[in-house]
Amino acid sequence: MKFSIVPAILTLAFIGCKEEPKKEAISVTYPQTKKIDTVDTYFGVEVKDPYRWLEDDRSEETAEWVKAENEVTFGYLEKIPFREELKQRLSNLWNYEKVGAPFKEGDYTYYYKNDGLQNQYVIYRYKTGEDPNTAEVFLDPNTFKEDGTISLGETSFSKDGSKLAYSISEGGSDWRKVLVMNTENRELIGDTLKDIKFSGLSWKAEEGFYYSSYDKPKGSQLSAKTDQHKVYYHKMGTPQSDDQVIFGATPEQKHRYIGASVTEDNNYLIIRASTSTTGNKLYIKDLTKPNSKFVTILDDTDSDTFILENVGSKLYVVTNRNAPNRKIVTVDAANPTPDNWKDFIPETENVLSPSTGGGNIFANYMVDAVSKVMQYDYDGKLIREIKLPGVGSAGGFGTKKEEKELYYSFTNYVTPGSIYKYDIASGNSELFIKPEIDFNPENYESHQVFFTSKDGTKVPMIITHKKGLKMDGKNPTILYGYGGFNISLTPSFSIANAVWMEQGGIYAVPNLRGGGEYGEKWHNAGTQMKKQNVFDDFIAAAEYLIKNNYTSSDFLAIRGGSNGGLLVGATMTQRPDLMKVALPAVGVLDMLRYHTFTAGAGWAYDYGTAEDSKEMFEYLKGYSPLHNVKEGVAYPATLITTGDHDDRVVPAHSFKFAAELQAKQTGNNPILIRIETDAGHGAGTPVSKTIEQYADIFGFTLFNMGYEDLPEKINKDIKQ
Questions:
Q1: Is 681 a residue of the active site?
Q2: Active site residue: 355, 562, 624, 654, which one?
Q3: How many Cβ atoms are within 10 Å of 81's Cβ, its own excluded?
Q4: Which helix (H) or strand (E) holds 656?
Q5: What's the pLDDT band for 680 if we cut at 50, 70, 90?
Q6: pLDDT (tens digit per residue) in 348-383
Q7: Measuring CA to CA, which residue among 4, 7, 50, 66 is closest to residue 29?
Q8: How far is the C-alpha of 570 from the C-alpha of 481, rounded, in Å?
Q9: What is the rounded CA–CA span in Å between residue 483 and residue 497?
Q10: The pLDDT of residue 551
Q11: Which of 49, 229, 383, 576 could lock 38 by a disulfide, CB 3.0 to 4.6 Å apart?
């Protein structure tokens, strides 16, 4: 299949280009993707899956297909005339010092820092009470591998700060190794633990730590199903082969996700056990009593519940049980079941996300996706509402019980993340770290609107752009969404989005149903057989932007990753006329088989599965992006992105979707797939790779909107 792409002359005329654009075409020949007759039968209905062979990530044929597709994609991207300019601007803006909030462990104060373009953040430290300028490098993940593709994951210090357990990810994989360091001399000690996945690390004093993992799967470690999580205890000085299974070994303890944590006083071990990404059971074990048994707090998965804090045997529990927006209750560890719970901070109309520090509880509320923070003591007395630096997202409010001060972060779509120092007793905040970045927030504006979805539901959206931007329907716009798994999209600064807005671009983020912005009711309104609400919300957001002249279908791109990749895939197949560009990243795109890979079965609370019932199968098939690509339809210019080591949403989703689109596309819009090598679902991606990805994504987007030069450059030429 061969076609040419000629940037639209009329489009360029709209934006005032002085010269007629060059009519140089980029010729694209897609690789021939073979079809194999593969058929599944669901409730008597046959479903063809001709590209099933691409699911085999270990086959040479799949590797050859990946290589061929990348050759086509990068051959196209290299011909975009302003790709290198975008990469250079992204690099220049990215190149500023980024420093995280300090935290104390043992005799030292630690913090994360990136000098600018380092692939991974470095951990520094100095002796607490001494001059911070004496800080030294403590752990530099950039030394793990030259190209930055081995990244630092979880970190956990022992009670006295003498040891650090940390995990590393190779090539972006969710499978990790765990190492232990003597923090005084920075030498590694003991075994390197292997084959650990979806795990925290929690110390029991200095003796050892708890972690979680699955049995190593047979077959492909990238795509094979993992569904029985177990908690292990690693005792220092012993090999991993001697690690004891603490929870998850028996059929009645079988869960897909289990997390273990030790309370700050080292008195209790807490276990959260889930079969899906929503809802958990809860158990507690008294570590002060030898051979104590687990005590059940909750034996159902009807709520999301966790232990926030304890004072002696008094537990502070956060739950959305009979409280969709969450509340805090107290109970004694000896009798911790719900019938003994007492309300401590009752549920309000806003979603609660609390933290603790210095003997206080900080209740962070989300009000229309924006932060509001209240400070309480351990008796439930309201101390104050914390005055935040502005309207945006505040986070971090946490430290150890004995500390007198803490640090919190503040950001929004036009404000680079800054760190504030907070005096817990007085309530005084002072700016601690403000990044020195070549971006002036005063030149941009961010405002919230509410639009009406198909069924009449009001949905909020924050729109950000340059001040004084002319609303003539011709502004390049990225509409970004997620809409699932109780995840909330709150305002935060992005270097990449800053570059987009510099070019006169608009960045719009709606808070779709399925997310957590308005609690569990909002989440559930976008799950299973109500999932179409999420797509309807996204479509309505696009229509709002077009109706109000922010942009038009010729200048609109839709973007999302993971569950957001599903959002983009479903929206572009349902309304291909609505946008010019579609950018699905690491997407869940085969809704009939997603649950058969890795930990995918754990997503069934949000999605349901094709095996649940005939109705659920038909509903999933009705919107599954892979199964709704039709012959003879002109789909928008599409750049699918994934990583060859993505073992969360396996790349086969993207591979099969790309093959379907390439085979059935009508018209001149390109369908490309960009497959990053030595990369996973996104976490730990080196800065160098991230910059290249954004240069390609933005370059592809603007080029397919008709630009042959960067919009900002065109505007400067016009003014001159």
A1: yes
A2: 562
A3: 15
A4: helix 652-664
A5: low
A6: 999 999 999 999 999 999 999 999 999 999 999 999
A7: 4
A8: 12
A9: 20
A10: 98
A11: 49
